[in-house]
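seq/struct pair 1
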Amino acid sequence: MDAQKSIMTFYDIASGPPVRPYAPNPWKARYALNFTNTPYCTTWIPLPDVAATRKKLGIPACRKHADGTDFLTLPILYDPTTRQEGTFVGDSFDIAIHLHNKQHSSPDGGRPPLFPPNSLALHRTFNAHVDALFTLNGVVLAGYYMPLDPATADASRAEYARLAGVSRWEDLEIPPGSEQRKEMLAAFEAALGSGLAAWFVRRDEGPFLEGGTPMYADLIVGGWLQMMRNCLPEWEQLRGWHGGLWGRLHDALEEWAQVS
């Protein structure tokens, strides 16, 4: 196949300006694309157009909102190298599996696999655990400060307020420096400590879960750290929690943080 025709298309949420990725699940997939050295280009989708884009491409929702309605979100990956019409993959974990299978069929000497042998089910459970931990403790502190595109920010904020069950976007703010925010940050730090930091038991060997060897589990955490870096006012504070674990992990993942 022509090299240009083998480039995958990655659909991500447009922030801006400047346009930069900030959402955790697209970041998980972007890390995986770079980790597997997969050629791709990014198609940036304005946040209010995400649901329509997913419907247009014929990709069903992979999650639900709290009210039971379809959560039509990104990322999406289009791989033109599979089947005559190509393949769309519409979930970050499924994208990682797709890339792992392609990597496994065409191994890159010296590059570790996304998923170590017999770890897929464990990774799926870990992904759900990390998502729940950051959603319950981090999103409420960081979501208000998402770098929304000013051109579409009003519509995005109105939709987020509706989904959160509040009348105004401003009702979602927890002001920096407030006692409530300090208490919630302390709870976030504690949750990360007991629910995640305790799993990094080989810190003397490297910043990853397995010490010096990265795997998809590290990219899962890294996706959420990217959201915190782009949205959480206290990002520098979070970097230093638990002996600087999160800052070291984030920095180590920069090798695979290219935006193509």
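seq/struct pair 2
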Amino acid sequence: MALVQQHEVASERCEDDACANPSTAPTFLCVSCGSTYCDACWDRQGSHKPGKVGLDGLHHEKVQKGIYDRLKAILDPPEGQEELNRLHIEDENTTWFGVEKDSNGKPFFHDYGRYAAMMAETKQPNAGLRYPQLVSFVGQT
């Protein structure tokens, strides 16, 4: 996805001038060149023909435009500092635990109580013991 960031995000329309349905066909984004084409027009582009590769030796990747846009909105941080600060404040209640340092600089485990609060918020009457079924940590936690 790194190469697409150099380009303006392409429109929802197929960019091929010869496209029969430029505004109605589902579109795909090329993450290498930042262009948007419908399925019928994709292989007509020179760099997208079967067997062709880019300068990096990789095929131009065909990604559903809607999925790319959704993930980009989630994974790219906002540009404005004010918006970023607001999001950080909203995220404060999502911290489950962490490692902090005491006054002597010695690290210790800190439980922020998020798990206990979440379990209390979602407790159903007459429910037995509950345990998380999936825990996943990606990146710095």
